[in-house]
Amino acid sequence: MAELRVGRPLRLLACVACLFICSLLRPLARFADGLRPAASVAELRVGRPLRLLACVAHWTLPIRLGIMRFLHTSDWHLGRSFHRVNLLSAQEAFIDHLIEVVRSERADAVLVAGDIYDRAVPPLPAIALFDEALHRLAALGVPTVMISGNHDSARRLGVGARLMERSGIHLRTDPAGCGEPVIFTDPYGDIAVYGLPYLEPSLVRDEFAAGRTDHTAVLEAAMNRVRADLATRAPGTRSVVLAHAFVTGAAECDSERDITAGGVASVPAAIFDGVDYTALGHLHSCQTISQRIRYSGSPLAYSFSEAGHRKSMWLVDLGQDGGVTAERIDCPAQRPLARIRGTLDELLTSPEYTTSEQAWVEATLTDAHRPYDPMARLAKRFPHILALAFAPQDDGGDPLVSYAQRLRDRTDQQIADDFVTHVRGHRPDERERTVLRTALDAARLRDPHTEAV
Questions:
Q1: Dist CA 246 CA 242 (whole Å)
Q2: How far out from the chain centre does Cα 237 lie?
Q3: Is residue 181 left, alpha or beta, with left meaning phi > 0 and alpha meaning psi from -120 to 50?
């Protein structure tokens, strides 16, 4: 079992040596906030001892307080577009933000809970961005634990995993390794981090000897392996689990791929009982299931159902006693989303929609009659409109009567009239009925000749 000892001997020695000094220098630490720490003490200007002491306090104070700090993120979906808009530049901006947060918040490790890519065979620019992210994280000397999600190809993502471990990048894509943690060490003991990749029930049932082919059964079996390994650890060992699943009670949105298996997609939160912190992926909204179980959500919006989402990551502090505190760190938004609804005239003229003019827009028109060329007309006010839907106002018909029922005992003319009404939302006018009648008559005249051929 590969284990990483992240105690960093030099850092631990510095912690012990500066334990007393830091208690005196705590007020100085605030002066270091906002300063970019140097790569080494030698890079600090020799003539500025105050800054040197402040930086020592800045880096060692979190350890002195017995805190292991994780940055929890998930669902990057590298390579995904948004209604045909390429999101690569927005995803690059997120990676820049991630690196800056790791540096400025002095994270001890990064947790990525699956769906790194948007599809099993990602486009080359997405692969290049992922490669760049790994290099930048490794250059910071901050270890990263990642799992594969239901959008990822676990086999492809896991290529080179053992080699990457030497650089502190820990890819957990093999279900067989669920009980093999990455071990972090601080002055108060070990933290065992278990990566549970997305577990497709039909594919992993035999691996876990699960009695049923559903998400609860396989995830429960995986967690049994986690608990079995944890039981062999020293008393007081803290634990973190990464998982990619739909936990009962969480809220979904339109951009998540359905993972229903055996008629049930969700798993109970109790599956993770006994774990100090569970870093979840799969759902795209940031959510708190409990103090110890959280979804980070996706860093970007991938559907208009996420228009009201606050995109963020969790900065999680794990105390020496296993206590958890978490802070949301906002992610940059390339462009806001707006869902607007009304008649075409209302959308084009009402000041209510001024704030949506520079947003990505999904418009729903409620006109009784479908307007002429509505997309082009809306684009003059909303240049970034991406989606258009129609929901005509109710014409008083019975919504419970199906189209098939309305066909019964109807003439061809009535069926044609009803079809137009069903599709368009209102009945054809007299001119349109004449056109339909002429077409029906022409079709009837051609039928005998067609049958005789």
A1: 13
A2: 29
A3: beta
Residue 414: both structure tokens together: 């009535």
Q: Are 56 and 22 in contact (CB under 8 A)?
A: yes
pLDDT tens profile 279-304 = 999 999 999 999 999 999 999 999 99
Could you give the CA distance from residue 142 to residue 24 in angstroms, rounded to a whole number?
28
What is the Cα–Cα distance from 98 to 422, expressed in whole angstroms?
Answer: 50
| Burial (CB count <10 Å: 0-12, 13-18, 19+), residue 6 | buried
DSSP code of 177? G
Q: Which two tokens stand for residue 293?
A: 């179980």
Q: Cβ atoms within 10 A of the Cβ of 191, count? A: 24
Can you point out the beta strands (E) in 27-130? 67-73, 81-82, 85-86, 109-113
Give the integer Cα–Cα distance in Å for 74 and 246: 13
118, 156 contact by CB (below 8 A): no
CA angle 440, 446, 451 (to 5 degrees): 125
pLDDT digits (tens, 9 = 90+) for 27-79: 344 334 433 333 333 333 334 444 444 444 444 444 435 689 999 999 999 99
Global pTM value: 0.73
| Residue listed under structure tokens 């959500």 | 297
Q: Under a CB-based contact definition with an 8 Å cutoff, are residues 329 and 312 in contact?
A: yes
DSSP one-letter string for 249-286: TPPP-TTSPP--BTTB-EE-GGGGTT-SEEEEES-SS-
Tokens describing residue 156 = 């492809």
